[in-house]
Amino acid sequence: MDIATKAGLELRKETASPFSLTTFQATANQLGGDTLTVYIEGDGAPWVSSTHPPQDPTPLNPVSLILASLDERRPILYMARPCQYLDEAELASCHYKYWTAGRFSQEVVEAVDQVISRVKYSTGTHRVRLIGFSGGGVIAALVAARRNDMESLVTVAAPLDIEAWAAFHQISPLQESLNPMDFIGRLSKIRQLHLVGEKDVIIPPGYAKAIQTRMPFAGFVFVPGYTHNCCWAENWPGLLSRELR
To answer: What integer best gives the mean pLDDT of the chain?
Structure first.
């Protein structure tokens, strides 16, 4: 929470049935910007094992929040994923499927999309810039495919083909989730950039390059020395300056 406070981001809970979503916002349109910049968090706390999810999906290392804190554009909205940053009672009422097999489900995407539209309206902006880390990049892509007001889409270490990703890691398919690859036609109309760490073992370069062949309309940048979590914050403004396609 200190990360957000130091960056001038205010904690706000946003209700979007069936979720209470934790957000941090700086909604004053100080620079007269026409675009709302939105950051979406990753999947959160690591799994105990391949078959045992965490009891609480709140991230131990909130990469997307750190990146949002380095972004000076306003207005800005950071969105935690469903069931993250909740107190004990709230977490007890949030079904575990929303950080397991249903983490990219229709209801999750609709809830995130609803909050973005609400904040966009309240800030008087007309365009949306979506940035998502890891699983948050999947949500960003799925939301982008629904909208007609997209300025750009940026993902960081995101498993954009969740079916291929599950097969690569030999884990159970996320049967209750949507796959961005099913919306290629809609995504092809959006300016986008996908950042991949060359030392990432969760989203390996070989896996990402296979996706790249299916998305020739998108920009892909493979960053030397970077892993899944490291070291995106070190040169975030520079990485954001890479050319969107």
So the answer is: 95
Are the C-beta atoms of 69 and 9 separated by less than 8 Å? yes
Lookup result for tokens 């973005």? 116
Q: Please give the model's pTM, rounded to 2 decimal places.
A: 0.97
CATH of domain 2-240: 3.40.50.1820
Domain boundaries, the chain: 2-240
Structure-block tokens of residue 44 = 């959160």
Long-range pairs, 216-221, Cβ under 8 A, ≥24: 217/187, 217/188, 217/192, 217/245, 218/187, 218/192, 218/193, 218/194, 218/245, 219/192, 219/193, 219/194, 219/243, 219/244, 219/245, 220/193, 220/194, 220/196, 221/193, 221/194, 221/195, 221/196
H or E stretch covering 115: helix 106-123
Host H or E run for residue 103: none
Note the pLDDT tens digit of each residue in 175-224: 999 999 999 999 999 999 999 999 999 999 999 999 999 999 999 999 99
